[in-house]
Amino acid sequence: MNGKIHLSGPGEGLPLAMSDGIHTVKAGAEHTGGVYEVFEVDAPRAPAAPPHRSPWAGTMYVLDGAVTVHADGETHDLGPGAAVTIPAQCAFTFEVTTENARLLAVTTGDGAGRFFADFAATVPADRPLEEVLPRLLEVTRRHGVSIAEPGS
Questions:
Q1: Is residue 27 part of a domain?
Q2: C-beta of residue 53 within 8 angstroms of C-beta of residue 149
Q3: pLDDT per position as a tens digit, 18-30
Q4: Residue 104 Cα distances to 34, 124, 126, 127, 146, angstroms
Q5: Read out DSSP for 74-117?
Q6: Domain assignment of residue 89, yes or no
Q7: pTM for the model
Q8: Cβ-count burial of 77 within 10 angstroms (0-12 exposed, 13-18 middle, 19+ buried)?
């Protein structure tokens, strides 16, 4: 990997408002030669997003708070210091079970950052799901993300 050293200090990075919280880019694909990306996720307690599949693998590491991850028919309760790795195309979602949670998300390739940026620019995070669903589905299709069928 060629390039420059990249530093993202506390409070730095591009914040992207998503329906499940703020995803702040700490290391984008442009900093890693497209090999991986790193996001700090600040998520409030809220209903879980529908299970979905993405073309990139990822690891969620809990920094603060607690989350329950539902992946491929399994449920995992995670607190500070715990991590879970989700393979590409695995149906998953997570819900915050404390007032809020802060996670570190590391994803393979460069697709998650493009998806998060497009989602944040296209889907208003403060609107009801029913209102934004057509936009949400349009963005997910553009990036190879799919909503998982119930029970899959």
A1: yes
A2: no
A3: 888 999 999 999 9
A4: 18, 23, 23, 25, 23
A5: EEEEE-TT-EEEE-TT--EEEEE-SSEEEEEEEEESSHHHHHHH
A6: yes
A7: 0.91
A8: exposed
Q: What is the rounded average pLDDT of the residues 98-106?
A: 97
First to last CA, the chain: 37
Which range, of 3-7, 10-14, 67-71, 92-96, averages the lowest pLDDT?
3-7
- pLDDT tens by residue, 29-58: 999 999 999 999 999 998 888 899 999 999
Number of structural domains (the chain) is 1
Residue 30 lies in a domain: yes
Its domain, for residue 35, covers 18-147
Position 81, amino acid: G
In a domain, 117, yes or no: yes
Residue type, 103: L
Interatomic CA distance for residues 19 and 128, integer angstroms: 10
CATH number of the domain that residue 45 is part of: 2.60.120.10
